[in-house]
Amino acid sequence: MNVREKEEEEGGQPSSWKCDQTEGPKPEPEIEEHRINIVEISDRMKFWFGSVVNAKERTPSQNPWSSIQRVPDQMLRATTSSDFEKFYEPRVISFGPYHHGKPHLRSGENIKPLCAKAFLDAGSLKIEHLYKKIESNIEAVRKCYDTHSTIEYDDETLAWIMLMDGLFILQFILSEGEGKTKVLRKHQIPLVELDLFLLENQLPFGVLQLIFEAADIPRMKGKIEDFVVSSITRLPEGTSVSKIQLEEPAHLLDLLRSALLGGDKEIRGKPKVQGTQKAFARGCCTRMTKASSKKESSSQVNWQSFRHIRELKAAGIHFQPSGTWFLRDISFESHFFYGYLKLPLLFVDNLTKPTFLNLVAFEMCSDAPHDYAVTSFLCFLDSLIDHADDVKELRSKKILYNSLGSDEEVARIFNEIPNGLVYPDLHKDVKEDIQKHYDRRLNTWIAQGLHDHFSSPWTIMGFIAAVLILLLTGVQAYFAIPGN
Q1: C-alpha closest to that of 421 among 122, 41, 78, 6
Q2: Count of other CB atoms within 10 angstroms of residue 246
Q3: Alpha carbon separation from 249 to 2, 159, 167, 260, 326 (Å, rounded)
Q4: Distance (Å, rounded) from C-alpha 414 to C-alpha 428?
Q5: Phi, psi for residue 461 in degrees, rounded to 5
Q6: Burial of 400 per CB tally in 10 Å (0-12, 13-18, 19+)
Q7: Which residue, of 63, 384, 397, 476, is most buried by count of CB atoms within 10 Å of its CB?
């Protein structure tokens, strides 16, 4: 390679264009004619260009019923195939087209006609009338699901799937005790309850509404709400609960989320963002050291230095049940040496982890409310629970009810569910108040002293005895002095 080629390759100017004082002036370079080569644009490039030119903001669907989406990719990245089957795939009954016809669910298809017949006989209904109701709305049904999942079904087949699934769900909700055991084994009943609240196993609530309105069942919507709430509170079947102002749900999982939050949901498609977009980077699942907060304004406490309940207890913070199961019902009060953190009641069993995972997956969907309330609660709980001792403390305060039998298992569940999630923190104000109380070292010292010396009647009695001995010794010494 010659010098010119080397200079051109390195991006420098050719040597003939440089001035050299020892040599005479160099001739001007010849001006070459520049031609524009017109490159033929392929069809694929035209498609790419068109996707940018015609790009539009996502607008809410015009379908009267909300979409039922699959588990988002960001949830699947941290999920193995066995975990997907365990937490997101139905075990007994499929509802809707996503898992319809899978080999391990075929026995469930044989149960659906029995429940459908029981529902029709109870109301002296004709199945043809209900079928026509759904078939007349089949286009709305198709728009609720992913196109690839419904393309293999014609309108008649899809309407039949919706009808049989809807009849089963309504009959399952209406049945109590022996009514369920006529068609299901006892061990299958809790599994069916779980299947009802899986994201990919949902039926549009509009389909259920078409059926129970045509059947003219009194207070059917209220019975559905009672069933959903009882699945949260583990109240006995048939127990009527206080009315919650629930909005019109997209499906049963959406209704479950609304009941967990107390019925106050964000408007779909309109995210509520407070402050700057930094809120999205400061996920409540992210734990930082206290030193990190020094970079922020002194008026804001964005990161927590406490790691678990035991540290908060050592700082004089006590835990109390809020008296409701609403996940938003979290508050903190600071009273000089002591603080009180109130948390909602929580029932933990084998259904807790898959149910919460599907609620988190639902909140990631584009049509879901944008407040991430369930995710924020789980992240907040994760910041409190690290070990079995933390779970034990919540149990002792009647906040958490553990039917798993192992506190270690409960701690592992609430550490695994929000793993890797970063979302707006709805409980930022509560965490800031806790951090401010925790940062007062005097509170910690006094609280630790009170805990060490006054945590039981024996230590209190010992302290009183020691004070009395000192007092009596002082009096005795005083009168032992001559002249007194």
Answers
A1: 78
A2: 21
A3: 75, 21, 18, 13, 17
A4: 19
A5: -65, -40
A6: buried
A7: 384
Residue that the structure tokens 């997209």 belong to? 250
359, pLDDT greater than 90:
yes
Over range 34-43, report the average pLDDT: 64
Instruction: Give the range among 64-68, 252-256, 343-347, 390-394 with minimum mean pLDDT.
Output: 64-68
Question: How many DSSP H helices and E strands does the chain contain?
Answer: 23, 5
Amino acid code (one letter) for 136: S
From CA 89, how far away is CA 109, in angstroms rounded? Answer: 16
For residues 277 and 341, the answer to whether their CB atoms sit within 8 Å is no
Q: Which tokens belong to 141? A: 């049904």
- Distance of alpha carbon 94 from alpha carbon 113, whole angstroms: 14
Tell me the DSSP string of 434-445.
HHHHHH-HHHHH
Q: Which two tokens stand for residue 41?
A: 């644009």
Which percentage of the chain shows pLDDT scores above 70?
73
DSSP 8-state class, residue 14: -
Return the number of other C-beta atoms located less than 10 Å from residue 460's C-beta.
Answer: 12
Comparing CA positions, the residue from 196, 204, 230 lying closest to residue 93 is 196
- 333 vs 187: CA distance, rounded Å: 44
Residues 6+ apart with CB under 8 A from 69: 146, 199, 365, 366, 367
